[in-house]
## 1
Amino acid sequence: MNFIYKDEILHLKAFQSIFDEIKTVDHRMGDNIQKALESAVTESHELLNKASTKEELHLALIKEQIFIQAQSSQYLNISDEITQKKNRLLEFKPKVYHEFMQEVEYKVSKLMRDKKQIMCNTIEEDGSWYSGLRDSAKKSGGLFVNATIKGINTISKEFKGKQVFEKENLMDSQTIVEALLEKYLSSESMAKQIREILSVASKGYEKKWIEQIALNVPSINRLSAFSLANSAKSNLKVDFQFGSTEQVLTMGLGSAVVGTVGLAMGWHTMTYAMLNVFPPVALFAAIATVVVGVITKEKAVQKRKKDIDDAVNQYHQYFLVQLYSLKLASLDNKSTSLYMEEMGKKMIDEAVYQWEKNYFGNLKMDHFQKLNQSFVKHLMYVNEVLDEVN
């Protein structure tokens, strides 16, 4: 008995393109999927070929519909399961990123407070009644002497070809505030401490991703389910790579993903590059004013504490700006913030890749989506004929 779309239904034409594509990528898996589908519709196709009345054709089409839906359910489950797990990781991504940045900011803030306290304690210990005059004289006198020496050397070099003084900075012109800033906020020292903060935070970031990926390994029960397939006679089950795979994925996939993606290891180089751009003494020089004259011990201490507070606050603010804006070669020419934000996407992409690799060989989710579209197209043919028969 002839009917519309007979050739398309009996020869599974809706699937030919995707079968060819899948077998090109993974011939064993593609052949397996094709044979499973062909086996599932063997009975209904025999009935379609033998049908001589509308009633027989209707019965054959219903069986075809049931068997195709049974096969389709497996691939719909695959797409749905992987999509659900991926979406959970996508929801997790901004959360773990913000937790990383908040941890870094909090610990750097605490570090700055501790530095302030140490320097202020030193100021109090040094706060004699004459410290204001001492620093002022030291600053102005030292700068004057050093400037004079430099001037003499310049003239001597121009007329005699050599310097009179080997060292131009013979006098220490640093105030106690400048000396403390240079000691406690030196680029090398701060880079080491902030590197440790970033290193600890990144390990926590990695640990959270490992745990989250382990919690979201796709369920083998869902991936292998044939909601109606068990009722289909002579049906072949698609041989996905299950067995111990789920256990392997649950135990080790998170670590494998993190290891493959890899966070920046050169935190020391990176932080030194960030902090060396703007030395702390330069900050103080921009805000400091020289106080000339004798002031009280209390005022001298308070003035120097305020200088330290202002300098450290600016230094802290500068670091935060660099954290979010300074592009670093060691981070693929990205800021630390952007690098860590994009790292989450890489984690998810790698997790999906590992799921595909461990479960489906060389097949990708795109192949299953196309396969689902083919099922929809085939069922459309069947439904069109059913409408004609009814």
## 2
Amino acid sequence: MNNLKEQLRKELRSEAPFTEDMKQRILMNNRLVKAPAKKLNWQVSIISLAFLLILGFVVMLQVTSDGETASKTVATLPTDPNELLALLQENENVLPIIESNGQLVIDPDTSFIMGKQWMLSNLPMVVKPDAEIQVGDYIAYYNTYDITVSPVYGVEGDKVQTSNGQVTLNGDFLALPGTVAPIEFDDAEQQEIFQYYFGYRYHFNKPQRDYIDVDIDPLSTNEYAVYMNDKGHTAQVIKESQIIGKVVGIEKLEPTFTLTTEEQSLYNAFKENYDMSLLQGAEPLTITKMYLQAEMELDYETHYALLTTREGPARAQIEHYLKNTQKIKEYYFTEDIQRLLNAYAFNGIERGQFEQRSENGGVITFIPTNSGSLETSAGMLKNEQGIWQPSFSRPIQ
């Protein structure tokens, strides 16, 4: 491992391209699925020269990168917070949730998905190695020791600068999620909800919330400017040789912990009036699956009704968390997103084992399907009626 790190340091210091050997050794620690080789087969019919020239001119206008870049930049940013937010949302790159279908899939070590899909940053992503890369796209690339996903701030010929959180591209303001300095909304609730459009993350430590100003020389051939945050919001230059490809989607995964016919009937009956006595005798795993099902349906009332009712630190902590994040989840989380998050976090729980560890406490231990062999557990507490209830909640990142 030390030899690997030393060779990587030497290559980065010399700005030499990553060797194929180095790339493969980085990928050994990542789930990377090779896509089948793509074949391009262009056939152009013989048509009049005049029509061909006109067609070529129209196509050139449609794919010119300057036009694409111009649509992401403005000479003046709106001063009204809601107008600025609308501009960022209009320009943001929203990744679809898609089947991989044999395409390249990467499991990034570090990922910076901005705006409305910030919660999907740590999930496997579908990548096209040979796709054209433009400003605003997400790309996967080899960083010093891992695979990183970042938004693109500049391509060949572009001049990128950052100042106090504001990114400029060729002298104009780059108007994408994460490229604009935070502003104050009149409403405190809006401030809390929309902070994800301004580079905020729950897990960022204090240095990572600072800004590092850079003034990057015009990018040369095979160079790209991308967002980076090791010790603060900034931009950095990477080489084409580091790039794995353009991220074209988030890999779809369906939950495996579906309710049985009997469990579905119990779940439907419980939702009618939240009569806790209906759950007498139900297995802890059954109640946990119902709890997760309600969350995937965005049925927060039922989700909360199934939560532990036993007073104590566990309930107080979860209630505090739910209160602080409810509005955020209601704004950003769709059923597709919540199903995806629960699938990655809890697939495999259907094979879990319940273990009672105290008079009123227990856990369901299981190995998540997507985490290799790392065992995890979901806490349960028994209420005064002798019914086991979930005492956990998956934190948003």
## 3
Amino acid sequence: MTSQVAENTAPPARPTHQVRQRTGRQEETEPQGHEREGHEPAGHAPGPEAPPAPGARTDAELLIAASVLLADAALTARQAGAELTGLLGSPRFALEAVRRPGWALGAALSCARALMRPSGLGFAANGGLLGEVARAAGNLTYRRPASTAMAVDAFALRIKAAADSHPNLDSPLARRLTDAMVAGERLEALRAVHALTERLGVTRALTTVSPVIMELFALSGLLDENPVNDDFSWVTLAGGVPTTDPFLGLPSSVLKFLNPGPGRAERADPDPILAKVLAGSANDIVSYVGDIGALGNHGLVLLRRVHCADGAVRHVLLLPGTSFGLLSNSTPQDLVGAFDGLLHSDTTYTRAAKKLLRRAGVPAGSEVMFIGHSLGGMTAMNLAMDVEVASEYRITHVIAVGSPIDGKRPADHTTRVISLLNKHDVIPALDGRGPASPNDIPASWLELAWLDESYDYPLSHAPQAYSDTLRGEQSAYREQVNELIRVYDGTVVANQPYMLRDR
């Protein structure tokens, strides 16, 4: 399906988005000297550009603003289709049809024209048994409603906006893929994927499209014949965190059956390498990320007790990320646990961590800081969302490194949330808020984002890549984070690893 950007789109009466504000967010754009496929090599100096006028918005911001208007119009049109469909199938309308058949016939014909004609809402029936059957028939016969056309255009504008700070998306091969996805040409999209991976390899091809991976998934779900997976696309368009998969439309509740463990925590002894790393630990974000890397991702976490300079005893819980070896293993740090942690707060990892805090005898009312990488960052936020944990302990800080946490909120509004992101990293965008998303984080959060030389995934996601960047070119971010956690300066009294198990 080829889609054109709608013209003269008026702001909707009930907006669902706000244009992104950079509150609390600090980020860098991609270095222009980095050689990219389909672009001039490093050393080619473009001519000087005039600086933008004060208060003027860039092309990317204008594209995002236009995508917001289109998204709101699409969501409003879809809701209108659902309300008209609901009206036709309502008992009240049936009762009126018995009393006033002539009026009912005229009303039904008017609703049908609005729902079916291209000059109206297109084939826009949805909601309820009748509407969902009609919508499924429309999907199978490629009769797309106006709301879908506007949604596709909104996603297309997001992709175009992302190319402003990620020029690799504007290379010929990447543009071939994104254009095919916007047009709904799946065969051409598969050819484009093959050409892109043949030229760049799998990891670099994935990294190239990672800034708009959620938009591409949403387009796939919106323009295929499967009516069950459309919710993924509409939730992504509205800026939410999808609770279904983009291909089959399976609900997130399936993960509860795959990840049902109650969680268990057991004290463990560090091996010589881990013991050596922990011996040099300090209250420093680079040190914390290095400690997480040393813990690995086979079930170990670390609880640190610190006698702080102000005389208080505080605790730090370090939570590593996912093991990619198996879909599921005996620990909470597996792929099933990762998807569960993204969509839910009550997970096996969270339950095991809560048992750890109790088993370790952390006193009620103690100040604690949760620091996690990837799945560990999600779990840190999930713990902060838990009312029971937040009421028992004073959660001062949550630091998430390379984690998709933007759809989560701590139970205690005074908890300081710090998110560290490498914009080449695929994983943080899985919460639906990539570079092209119009949604933003709360003003009280601090998000520090950058682009570094670890271009390819999974290298760009590794704890070592984050610690190296914070130690080197982003040392100012390191100092900024360390200043925020200065209250944890002091003497490390204990470093106790724990092995977490599903059962």
## 4
Amino acid sequence: MRRTTVYDVAKEAGVSTATVSFTFRRPDKVKPETRERVLAAAKMLDYVPSANARGLARGQTGVLGLYSFDMLIERPIGDDDEDDESAIADMADEEFDCPSVLSYPLYVDEVQRGFELECRRRNRAVLLGTAVRRDDGAGITDVAGRVDGLAVFPNKFTDTLPLTSLCRSIPIVRLSEGAGTDPAAYITCDNVRGVNLLIDHLVDVHGVHDIQFVGSMGNYDGRQRFAAMRSRLKTRGLRVPERPLDDSTAGTHEHFVTLCETIDMGRLPQALVCATDQTAFEVLAVLRDAGVRVPQDVLVTGFDGILAGRMLDPALTTVRQPMGAMGQLAARLLDERAGEPWKESEQYHLPVRLVVRNSCGC
């Protein structure tokens, strides 16, 4: 399928190619009615403005892209802040409808490393893109126009991006996302097996029969892991919670109200299964501040297997997903598409393994 060019948009909109270029690069220089006509034509044709590939006979850039989100997307740290830590601390004291530091996926670095290593092996350059605001459609479109394929990390603002139209122009890989309707490749770990390993370990090794879930339902991994836990508990004949103990999406103690109330009433379950390692870090901090001992008073587990879990006291029992392999697979799939979009969605599940440490009582 041929990539739509600036000439196609110009013909459809009845303007010159220079006007199309100005519409995307210098919209202030184009009359509003003309700009709207060009944008409407571009949307209809699924046009992605290319920054450096127009003149290449193969229509390829030799570059693959990786797109993520600024963890302080609503309030980037400026040069006038005294330091990063003070800026982050200030944010924790205010009300923002945005991701917190702990909702930013720390596994990004490991996925990125795998992506870059595979690109290097395949003689591909890497372009990293970062959303600077929640509806950064222009930003991701610009990045897409510079690359032969793009991998996108999940975020609460992903649905605001023009991924559906981009999927028809270049190959797109959605990381840590379940298969959707867009023609893209979706890569995730085997969440169901990971949760089953955790539950079976808690029940069979530690005799646990009262388990609660802590974590966000605002993303695919969180929802699937909670559903898997409920299914496994039902299979084992144990009590099945209707909802998470805390549907926490932020990394401050104020967002663990139910957990704090449960501690105050002395009604903690035997084990807390956290949606991610990052959530587990915050849960451990809440428990420590309340004088609750882990694992003596309650067992705590995570999911993802990020390296920081080894450094905790107690060290975190978790499920390790192959983050480097996820990045490598994304780069390989994009490279093999050679700029050709997928015609339908494809799903890839990567294996996981249980990592037993001290926080579960082992």
